[in-house]
Amino acid sequence: MNHSLPSRVVKLSVTLILLSASIYAQGTKADYERAQNLRKQFEGAVVNITGRATWIEGTHTFWYRRSSRGVNEFMLFNAETMAKTRIFDHDKLAAGLSSAAGENYKPLELPFVTFTFVLNANAIQFVVGDNTWRCDLGNYVCTRVERRGGPGFVSGQQNRPTDQPKSSPDGKWEAYIKNYNLFIRSKDKKEEVPLSWDGSENNFYAFGSIAWSPDSKSIAAYRVRPGYHRKIQYIQSSPTDQLQPKYSTIEYAKPGDTLDIEQPVLFQLATRRSDRRRQQSLSKRL
To answer: Model pTM greater than 0.90?
Structure first.
């Protein structure tokens, strides 16, 4: 009598069950497309979803991003008058950014969810993909600017020779980085003055952090000791706007990675030296 027949039947049944489950779990192209479009379907159905409120310093107003049926607007709210308006002209901003980036952005589908005011609130700055953009709110001209990569100011292209000097508010001086140190020079380029001497490749002054005081008597910059910048690569195999795959990288710090150490340094133009006392106070506030 053959006792192995039942065991063979059981093994065959289990194999067929596992095989069918594996085939079913793999899914079809339609399943993946439906899963990828699920978020868009939900976003297109919600109404009046408001993002985080961001107060504008020195005012009684704040801005937020409002989403409603796939339409995204950046709104400005006045807490005194209870008035609510768009914070900028979405059509002009989309046109300016599209022209500068070579893309086609729609006014109510702008490619960012947050921004910061710069240049005394006369412009906004935001990140799209691997690039940082600055758009003037007067003429809506957008330009690509240097991005602070990762947790600090180091991006692999920091302090490049092509960085344009930063002019003082009174128009008399220009600030720039030379040999990892902070320099200023007169507008006619006849006088060049080093403000720091302690910059080095492993502890440099970051061009992207240079900031003039409104009276042009002081200038501040971060001295950065770079940490470890771990990069993660992404490949979008089937982008919606082109046939070829897209490649991108982001910096992603993991637990235990050394981070950038940023030390603010304040310089007085009258003495051509750093103000140690005010510098310590500035460090505590930051």
So the answer is: no
